[in-house]
């Protein structure tokens, strides 16, 4: 029985390069599909955020408490994502780290007398969003209930 074989010079090297390139493309695709969310879970958050002259005046804080810090910090957030990703090769960690920085800056601008709103802030990767948001909502609702109970106690 005779066999016929050919050896193509450089084929193995070319295949290895192709495999590495494919791995990089797959990693890049996974990175593009990773999303991080920063938000607030109290149902009135959108109104406080979007109405420039609310009917109730808040002595501190701002109405665009998430948007303004995001615009101010855009370059810093990009650099933070790059820095953490370069160190860890974990895009989820990089996005979450930057997201937590934005969340903190945003919470500093939430009208102070709205403690439940401030406590309803969350930062989460898309896969964890529902659970993390639910936890933030429960925490802020608990604060709201405690604040109501304290007000009733103070009145009575």
Description:
The protein is mostly helical. The chain has one domain (39-151). Helix content is 64%, strand content 6%. A two-stranded antiparallel ribbon has the order 1-2. Helix 3 (67-88) runs antiparallel to helix 4. The protein is elongated, with a radius of gyration of 25 Å. It starts with 10 loop residues before the first helix and ends with a helix. 21% of the residues are buried. Mean pLDDT is 80; it is low at 1-9.
Tally of separate helices: 6
Name the strands of the widest sheet in spatial order.
Answer: 1-2
Instruction: Give the averaged pLDDT, no decimals.
Output: 80
C-alpha Rg, in Å? Answer: 25 Å
Please give a quick description of this structure:
This protein is mainly alpha-helical. It has six helices and two strands, in the order αβααααβα. The radius of gyration is 25 Å and the shape is elongated.
Features:
mainly alpha; disordered N terminus; 156 residues; two-stranded antiparallel ribbon
Set out the fold topology.
Blueprint: H1 11-33, E1 36-40, H2 45-50, H3 67-88, H4 91-107, H5 115-119, E2 121-125, H6 129-155
Antiparallel strand pairs: 1-2
Helix pairs in contact: 3-4
